[in-house]
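[INFO] parsing input record for Protein SirB1 N-terminal domain-containing protein
[DEBUG] input buffer:
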Amino acid sequence: MIAFTDQELDELTLVEGALALNAAIDSSTSMHWVRAELELLAKEAENALAGEANDELRLEGLLRLFYKDWGFSGDFEQYFSSENAFVEKVLKRRKGIPVSLGAVLLFFTERLELPVEPVGFPTQLILKVNWRDRAPSYINPFDGEFLSERTLRGWLIGKEGPVAQLRPEDLEASDNPTLVGRWLAVIKSALLREEKYDMALRCSELALTFSPDDPYEIRDRGYIFQQLKCDWVAAEDYEYFIAQCPDDPAAELLKLQVKVLTAEAPIFH
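[DEBUG] output buffer:
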């Protein structure tokens, strides 16, 4: 299993960091094809927008290319599918979710030297445009539309309740380790729903390279081990969680699980 450091992730573009993550989870990922496809599209964008006079027109042209001509769009029908979180599949299907579409779009804004940066907003990834002569704008990478602060506050209310307020820190740029960590959690959740436990286990092991002692991640790994019929290993992870988080409501239920999982002694051959 590949271990990623914060420094290594920050030295890559977001999409390159995600691609390395994807390859660590799914060994069939074609990193060469993805890089070639990104390069092909980037050159097309550079050629198409070379004559635009300013950043605003170039960004407008890029959004038109990305969402109209190239046909990228948010996957409304299968939003939680793991296919939407793997860069290779997003490029082939031209469908994704905010974090994957945003990372791909960000790759092109960087090539065009546009003043765009990623923001790990509490509800999803958004893109922040830092104009020289006016307040920043915000793009929803799911559909390429600009977002008002009223809309962003509405998203927060939907997540946190009616008293939620839009805070300055909600709109600050995020670093790659933070975004890749969130991306990893999205992939793991999708794989668990699809019962792809081998790849979900790789996600959990990767997450533990970022936070080796995270009891909640270790609990999740225990659940995956249980689905893979590795009962004693699952029990060890559950016991760690119980010891670290004895007051968590899940602790009592997991104590019962441990008893069941360890009720029969393992047989060694």
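[INFO] Strands lie at 73-74, 95-96, 116-120, 125-129, 137-140, 145-147.
[INFO] shutting down worker
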